[in-house]
Amino acid sequence: MKRIAIDMDEVIADANLRFMDWYERDFGRRITLQEIHGKFFREVVSPEHREHTIKYLHTEGFFKDMAVIKDSQEVVYELSKKYEIFITTAAMEFPTSFIHKYEWLKQHFPFIPWTHMVFCGDKSIIHADYLIDDHSRHFKRFSGQGILFTSPHNVHEDWNPRVNSWKDVADLLL
Amino acid sequence: MKRIAIDMDEVIADANLRFMDWYERDFGRRITLQEIHGKFFREVVSPEHREHTIKYLHTEGFFKDMAVIKDSQEVVYELSKKYEIFITTAAMEFPTSFIHKYEWLKQHFPFIPWTHMVFCGDKSIIHADYLIDDHSRHFKRFSGQGILFTSPHNVHEDWNPRVNSWKDVADLLL
């Protein structure tokens, strides 16, 4: 049975929405998806807010109760019948995220057992046939096939295969 | 550069000593290393204490400030000059361990960056040339060479190569 490793943030968990919500809460302005097209969130905020915004990632609660990316639950569940699924997230950079990411996976992807959750940093340690991720840098030393999941920050990157949605993932792998 | 994945509990962190300390604290008797030879800790405690003892693993603080296994820091440091080192621990079974394991690694193995720490469950996800672990079950689907690190519970297991100490690891890999 082939194995698929799947990233969390911007692939199954909507981190950008959390950035938008917290930024609006703190500075009273809603950053739009159009604004962050082709960029990271931190690149479009006012320069005097940048440092504050980057700190969100290290703030208790940032990774708690994130919204689920559209169709990810249904498609990952269908994939799990044909492939071995691991969730592989670079959580090690953000220690405040550990327990929230774990609880989130248990709640929203209850069919993924704890044996198949991985918190890591450098994803070249992952032994899988496919890695679905929004950061192509993880593909460079990855031994399998990287599949780039479209996120505002990577729209101008040249990578094949690319998927724009979980429906695309279903078309590619199911 | 070849890559070595290294387990934590009973390989670099002394989990048995923690069991002994907590059991003595709770029941007034010191279990000895002789008693657990060839067994898991839970197998040698009084039957009426077994359930309580197993719960230690899920108790806040069990994984905090564990003693470091003899010579592990020095040898892993020397290994890190010749090999790429990842610490790969099946932490996912014990969510209360996450932050304590992370802090412990930062304190006792400061030369291992967060990019090279992995919390996982099924270690077949690990892509490495060697895995040093006290549980041979992790070697079954591991794609590299498993190296069994001697711990009381595995002394009667038949596995080659086996190492009895970090000096043995140095002899084998340096």
Automatic annotation (TrEMBL), chains A, B:
InterPro entries (alphabetical) = 5'(3')-deoxyribonucleotidase, HAD-like_sf, HAD_sf
Q: Where is the active site?
A: 7 (nucleophile), 9 (proton donor)
Lineage top rank: taxon: Bacteria
GO MF, one term, reads:
5'-nucleotidase activity
| Gene Ontology biological-process annotations | pyrimidine deoxyribonucleotide catabolic process
Q: Which family does it belong to?
A: Belongs to the 5'(3')-deoxyribonucleotidase family.
What is the protein's name according to its record?
5'-3'-deoxyribonucleotidase
Q: Which organism is it from?
A: Rhodocytophaga rosea
